[in-house]
Amino acid sequence: MATANPPVSQTKSFSTIFLIELWERFGYYGMQAVMVVYMIEKLGFSDSKANLTWGAFTALVYAAPAIGGWVGDKILGSRRTMTMGAIILAIGYLLLSVPSEDMYFLYWALGVIVVGNGFFKANSGNLVRKIYEGDDSKIDAAFTIYYMAVNIGSTASILLTPWIKVHWGWLSAFAVCCGGLLVGLVNYFFMRRTLSRIGSPPDDQPIHKGKLAIVLGVGFATTFVVAMVLQNQAVAKACIWLAGIIVLAIFGYLIAKVDRSERAGLLAALVLTAQTLLFFIFYQQMSTSLTLFGVRNVDPNFSIFGVHLFTWIPEQFQALNPIWIMVASPILAWAYTALGKRGKDLPIAGKFALGFVVVAIGFFIYGISGNFAVNGIVSSWFMVWGYGFYSLGELFVSALGLAMIARYVPARMGGFMMGAYYVATGLSQYMGSVIANFASVPEDMKDPVQSLPLYTDLFNKLGFLAVGGTLLAIVLLPLMKRLSESHHGSSAPVKDAAAAEAAE
Predict the structure, then answer these.
(1) Where does the sequence pass through the membrane (predicted)?
(2) In this structure, is residue 202 part of a structural domain?
(3) Strand partners, 374
(4) What pLDDT shows up at residue 406?
(5) Is 441 helix (H, G, I), strand (E, B) or coil?
(6) Where would you tag: which of 257, 414, 419, 427 has the fewest CB atoms within 10 A of its CB?
């Protein structure tokens, strides 16, 4: 006799999360593509103020899922919290598109986006983890493809929003970001049945209206707190460091208190999270120093052998990152799966080390571009190849950071640990903005010949920093091997029992 609700395939469940993640990232990266330049050109911010404001915002954006993951795990359920986050994000982007001369209104709109992202981000990743739980090679492949969803959405919006900004104005560009979230929500509504068996325990219970009201009330109040924090750089810095210290302390407490069988996995996750923190310093350059370098010192015309092909708006150079990732993601996902079947998959710590190597190459390409400049302007092809190597490194480190949490962290802590991972990335992105300010161009410096050495010097230093990350990852390989073997040895009986139970 057929069941009323037959099981849904993993592929269909994954496709639902893939699509809503795609549209959520469409909104976020569309805003990211133009926000720093908007602050400088439209609002009159200095380079330093724009970089640090954006850095504080992104740090809070990435820190917020630590709470959102807990709300999904314990209070409302992962599916509900993710959906609620998408709705709040749409409201935030809509607020950015409202004409207002009040600077506080901008900060408040950014605060709404912080809260919405907090509810959405940890829970979408945690749902992917639950779909493929127990199969390491599939988890690596799934998160690599999931990461490709990020880049499909971001490619479209990074190309679109600068073009809309030029033709219809800044506010119209932000309105398009809101539209992307609305499309994602409509699509999710029609596909939501595919996740009916995936989620955290509260998803299986009737929604508690009182708890929902409290969560929404706290979220609304938090938007104003974030707005005040963004206005004060000293307060922003203190809050970001405090959040990092708190999460690290909780991490230490959990490592001390969990069963010995789970401790090795948590220690491995902590080590890899620390390496991820270093990586996101490089990632933050995309929306800060690399974007401003593209605006001021890169020829937007693409030519081959003197034949003009096309011209990009400078902010669109950011799209090179997701374009390269979409090219490489399916190849790496296939390679991970094929090697996993043969028992020859490269350990995740080894993938991190390889990632830092290619990131270093990417930044050295940006650095040497100054040697080929004409009147302070470099060829757009340096951006193409620099982003190519950087993006491959991102796939080895950032895409697998989520898979690392899924692999090493006990299921009952999944939502919180996803959130803790994002706190670490937020902290490092703020550090990335601080580093980007080493190439801050004074307001009276308009000549590209003068600004060029500021950028190329920064990029060369970042290249050497990535070399340091490579050496650190290599030194840690033996430790990671021992921790991984200990983790898998202790978790094998649990997995076997789960498999036997599923077979029955």
Answers:
(1) 52-72, 81-98, 104-120, 141-164, 170-191, 212-229, 235-256, 263-283, 319-336, 348-368, 388-409, 421-442, 462-480
(2) yes
(3) 377
(4) 62
(5) coil
(6) 257
Which domain CATH number covers 244? 1.20.1250.20
Q: What is the Cβ-side half-sphere exposure of residue 474, based on CA atoms within 13 angstroms? A: 9
Series of mean pLDDT values for 10-residue runs along the chain (504 residues): 54 81 91 93 90 92 81 85 92 91 88 93 78 68 72 89 93 93 90 78 83 91 93 84 77 73 70 77 93 95 85 93 85 79 74 88 96 95 95 78 64 65 80 92 86 96 93 76 60 40 34
Tens digits of residue pLDDT in 346-375:
776 778 788 899 999 999 999 999 999 999
Dihedral of CA atoms 473, 478, 479, 484 in degrees, nearest 10, equals 100
Q: State pTM to two decimals.
A: 0.83
Judged on CB neighbours under 10 Å (0-12, 13-18, 19+), 104 is: middle
What would the 3-class secondary structure string for 172-220 be? HHHHHHHHHHHHHHHHHHHHHHHHCCCCCHHHHCCCCHHHHHHHHHHHH
- 3-state SS assignment for residue 77: coil
Domain, as residue range, for 242: 11-496
**Tokens found for residue 443:** 């307001």
How many distinct structural domains can be found in the chain?
1
**Is residue 3 in a domain?**
no
The one-character DSSP state at 409 is: S
CA neighbor of 453 nearest in space, from 303, 45, 445, 429: 445
Cα 302 vs. chain centroid, distance in angstroms? 29
Q: Is residue 32 part of a domain?
A: yes
Q: What torsion, rounded to 10 degrees, do the Cα atoms 207, 212, 214, 218 define? A: 150
Closest among 329, 352, 307, 390 to 473, alpha carbons compared: 352
d(CA 225, CA 63): 14
The string of pLDDT tens digits covering residues 73-104 is: 888 888 888 889 999 999 999 999 998 877 88
Report yes or no on 4 lying in a domain.
Answer: no
